[in-house]
């Protein structure tokens, strides 16, 4: 007979595999329906063409309207680079990309389960619930056919958190180092997929710091954060060096200036709009030179009217956090005959209802413990209450800001660094900061959805523990005697 700890560990891994396969099966059904009907569109079409060229051996190049071929670097290389490897093996078809997306979505659900397994207590199973929320999430499932980078970024961020937790809980130095290396490599790949992931790398490294008998000394946290940053930089360095040499600018991608300039355009109202080239950049040629010129123009515009730029922030946050519906937007844009406006609206309604339910549960999960006292706890409770009200209104972005504030006020627990609380705080805060600077779109919140679902699962389990139960008969053992008490 296996020791209880070993049996529990094996059951946990069986559950991880089961939820991963279930998530994969659901996404494969969506792929089977979508592959014959939907072709790449918007950024997805560009990713597809970049991947085709890389797979054919031409490298990351762009074909200009006059037919000339030039080296390019506008879009991040990570996602089209992954597609290119598969295209070289299996053929350059959208079906191959959709299958990759389905696999990444399944891995994301499995990673959420591993992230929450240490919090399972007795009959309370947040791991299975959180992973199930990711597996069936209508926003994530419907986005599977989209040849877009946000799903890959969500998977890498969640896998990185799970690896950080494994490093933190490792019982041997070798396993701790292996977990930290895995965390750093995943973070570096995430930077190649979405450059703003670089802002999350120190958080991931800090999460991997092990807890000793004396807690987590600051020097150990800084050390693991620095190590993760160094590993991520090593993964991304070859591409940055390529851009230094070929494009003349050392960067992960060459679109920050474009996006910043769009984000300063009052006519865009905080969302994406075609870039209006300023007169000062009309004669500038080359991707790198244009991007630098656009950045300078954007900073001049911000300096001339900082209040007007800041006034766009609520619209940018609303565009990012209120309604995602990235899958409905993509499917409708790709083939409006196969996925018309009524279908897009219906999917949006289902997705908003699901996501607001998760957000409400996440706010409950972020609330301080009942025994918590002091000004921080009171402020956190007020923010949670305001967030619960805001989540029931169209202004979901206010609820997200309240959630960020409540999590920032939360006192660290034994698993705080790699817990869903930490994950949601990092993902939502970075998303908000980045897109207040640039512009907002619903698809940009996709990387934060899995960790938000994980925190929502903790909130639902908290509600279940607080729900009144029917007293057990006097001759039967009480529930507390049957299962160990749960802790938060």
Record the SSE blueprint.
Elements: H1 4-34, H2 43-55, E1 61-63, E2 69-71, H3 78-90, H4 94-116, H5 126-136, H6 138-142, H7 150-169, H8 173-193, H9 201-207, H10 218-247, H11 256-263, H12 287-304, H13 306-311, H14 313-321, H15 326-334, H16 341-366, H17 375-390, H18 396-409, H19 420-437, H20 449-466, H21 479-482
Antiparallel strand pairs: 1-2
Helix pairs in contact: 1-4, 1-5, 2-3, 4-5, 4-7, 5-20, 7-8, 7-9, 8-10, 9-10, 11-12, 14-18, 14-19, 15-16, 16-17, 16-18, 16-20, 17-18, 18-19, 19-20
Account of the 3D structure:
The chain is 66% helix and 1% strand. By secondary structure, it is mainly alpha-helical. It has one domain (4-211, 219-271, 285-465). It has a two-stranded antiparallel ribbon. The longest helix has 31 residues, at 4-34. The chain is globular, with a radius of gyration of 23 Å.
In short:
66% of the residues lie in helices and 1% in strands.
What's the rounded overall pLDDT mean? 88
Number of strands: 2
**Uncertain segments of ≥5 residues (pLDDT<50)?**
468-488
Q: Into which percent range does the helicity of residues fall?
A: 55-70%
**CA(first)-CA(last) distance:** 31 Å
Shape: globular
Measured by DSSP, the beta-strand proportion falls in under 5%
Helix run count: 21
Structural class: mainly alpha
Strand order of the largest sheet: 1-2
Q: What is the radius of gyration?
A: 23 Å
N-to-C order of helices and strands? HHEEHHHHHHHHHHHHHHHHHHH
The major beta sheet can be summarized as: 2 strands, antiparallel
Q: List the domain count as a whole number.
A: 1
């Amino acid at each position: 007979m296996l020791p209880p700890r070993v049996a529990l560990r094996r059951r946990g891994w069986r559950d991880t595999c089961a939820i991963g396969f279930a998530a994969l099966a659901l996404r494969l059904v969506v792929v089977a329906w979508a592959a014959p009907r939907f072709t790449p569109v918007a950024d997805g079409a560009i990713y597809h063409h970049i991947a085709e060229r890389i797979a054919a051996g031409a490298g990351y190049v762009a074909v200009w309207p006059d037919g000339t071929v030039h080296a390019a670097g506008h879009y991040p290389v990570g996602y089209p680079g992954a597609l290119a490897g598969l295209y070289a093996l299996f053929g350059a078809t959208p079906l191959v990309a959709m299958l990759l997306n389905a696999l990444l979505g399944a891995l994301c659900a499995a990673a959420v389960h591993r992230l929450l397994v240490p919090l399972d207590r007795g009959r309370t199973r947040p791991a299975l619930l959180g992973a199930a929320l990711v597996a069936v999430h209508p926003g994530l499932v419907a986005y599977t056919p989209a040849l877009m980078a946000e799903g890959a970024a969500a998977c890498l961020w969640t896998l990185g958190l799970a690896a950080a937790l494994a490093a933190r809980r490792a019982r041997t130095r070798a396993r701790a180092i292996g977990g930290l290396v895995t965390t750093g490599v995943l973070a570096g790949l995430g930077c190649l997929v979405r450059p703003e992931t670089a802002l999350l790398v120190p958080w991931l490294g800090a999460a991997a710091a092990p807890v000793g008998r004396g807690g987590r000394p600051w020097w150990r946290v800084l050390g693991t954060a620095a190590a993760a940053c160094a590993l991520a930089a090593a993964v991304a360095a070859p591409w940055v060096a390529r851009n230094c040499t070929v494009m003349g600018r050392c960067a992960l991608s060459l679109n920050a200036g474009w996006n910043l300039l769009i984000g300063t355009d009052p006519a865009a109202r905080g969302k994406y709009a075609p870039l209006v080239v300023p007169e000062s950049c009309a004669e500038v040629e080359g991707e790198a030179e244009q991007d630098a010129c656009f950045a300078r123009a954007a900073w001049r515009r911000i300096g001339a009217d900082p209040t007007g730029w800041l006034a766009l922030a609520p619209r940018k946050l609303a565009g990012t956090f209120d309604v995602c519906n990235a899958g409905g937007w993509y499917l409708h844009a790709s083939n409006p005959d196969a996925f018309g406006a009524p279908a897009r609206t219906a999917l949006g309604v289902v997705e908003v209802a699901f996501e607001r339910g998760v957000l409400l549960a996440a706010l409950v999960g972020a609330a301080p413990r009942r025994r918590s006292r002091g000004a921080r706890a009171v402020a956190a409770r007020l923010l949670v209450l305001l967030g619960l009200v805001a989540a029931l209104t169209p202004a979901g972005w206010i609820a997200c800001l309240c959630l960020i504030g409540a999590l920032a006020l939360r006192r660290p627990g034994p698993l705080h660094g790699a817990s869903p609380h930490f994950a949601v705080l990092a993902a939502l805060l970075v998303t908000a900061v980045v897109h207040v600077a640039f512009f907002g779109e619903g698809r940009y919140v996709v990387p934060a959805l899995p960790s938000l679902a994980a925190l929502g699962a903790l909130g639902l389990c908290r509600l279940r523990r607080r729900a009144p139960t029917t007293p057990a008969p006097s001759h039967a053992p009480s529930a507390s005697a049957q299962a160990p008490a749960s802790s938060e």
